[in-house]
Amino acid sequence: MSDADTITKNAKSNLAFTLMDLPEERRQNMARLYAFCRIVDDVVDEPGMTSEERHAALNRWTDIITCTVPPSAGIESEVQKLMVEQQLDAAPLLELLAGCRSDITPQQPATRDDLLHYAYQVAACVGISSAAVMGASPAAKDYAMALGYALQLVNILRDIAEDYRKHGRIYLPADDMALFGVTEEDIREQRYNYRMRQLLAYEAALAEKYFCEAEELYHQLSVEDRNCLIPAQAMSLIYHTVLEKMQDDEYRVFERRYSVNNFRKLWFLLRARIGSFEFPSITEWGFLYNDEKKQP
Fold first, then answer.
1. 3-state SS class at 135
2. Range(s) of the chain covered by CATH 1.10.600.10
């Protein structure tokens, strides 16, 4: 098993679950991309490193994905091989590294535009690269971006308590918190009240907007692109269900972590596969017609 496969398997993430649908070569390549994303995220989040060490580690990965230094054996070699063999555009992954770097010294987004810029870096850009590795055409870029925004917004809503407790981070825009009268102290003390529910519902509506946009864009894609993006569409179904669970439960994010069990994930993967098919119109069902022309 490669280092990328080991990292992907151990992560037990929703994405890792959906990759089983891909052909072997694309699954291996997605495992490499996922492993890279997992590692750079851990560089920022895992304890025991100074800020200088974290920046140095991200600098090293910048050199790896831009192929400016020879890689060491293992995951560095696998990621650089992915960049070269797939001719993968490094720009989205450089944006991801910039987003991760901003988390080393976290700063709350002031506005929704600031939040969406961060989500673009750490999620939409991952979506762009993932779509390319899955074999989709450039036409899938807007879909991948919209879905990336939606998934990141769900993550932010679901992980409010954990992000603050572990890392002192608040990703909800300061302007939005002020609009609903929610303070940092409310988050620190995990105060679940009407103002907090209204704020979270307001942010959930933004996530819903991007899920709807992604769904519309998905159905505008070619059959070939939709087939390539089945894992991404399964991710959309999984995360949209997490969002719906939070909505139905009135956003009790301080009390529980919302998730989807493996049986439902498998069902969503099947739904995504079925939904990618384009069935022939009834006039193309030849068995309903007599194709033999009468002789004059």
1. coil
2. 106-273
Distances (CA, A) of 176 to 7, 42, 101, 150, 214: 37, 29, 24, 18, 24
Strand spans (E) along the chain: none
The encoded tokens of residue 278 equal: 């384009």
- Confidence (pTM): 0.89
Q: How far is Cα 30 from Cα 78, in angstroms, rounded to an integer? A: 11
CA 248 to chain centroid? 23
Residue 128, amino acid: I
The closest of 117, 171, 126 to 145, measured between CA atoms, is 126
**Domain 106-273, CATH number (from 3.30.565.10, 3.30.450.40, 3.40.50.720, 1.10.600.10):** 1.10.600.10
Quick check: 24 and 3 in contact, CB under 8 A? no
User: Cα torsion at 128, 131, 132, 138 (round to 10°)?
Assistant: -70
SS3 89: coil
Task: Give the residue from 129, 66, 63 showing the smallest Cα distance to 92.
Answer: 129
DSSP single-letter state for residue 121? I
Please write the tens of the pLDDT for every residue from 209-268.
Answer: 999 999 999 999 999 999 999 999 999 999 999 999 999 999 999 999 999 998 898 888
Nearest Cα residue to 246 out of 156, 168, 186: 156
What is the maximum alpha-carbon separation in the chain? Answer: 89
Nearest to 258 by CA among 238, 233, 232: 238
Task: Indicate the pLDDT class of residue 276, thresholds 50, 70 and 90.
Answer: low
Contact 157, 204 (CB under 8 A): yes
Helix (H) or strand (E) holding 234: helix 230-248
- The torsion angle over the Cα atoms of residues 119, 120, 122 and 128, rounded to 10 degrees, is 140
The tokens for 199 are 């704020």
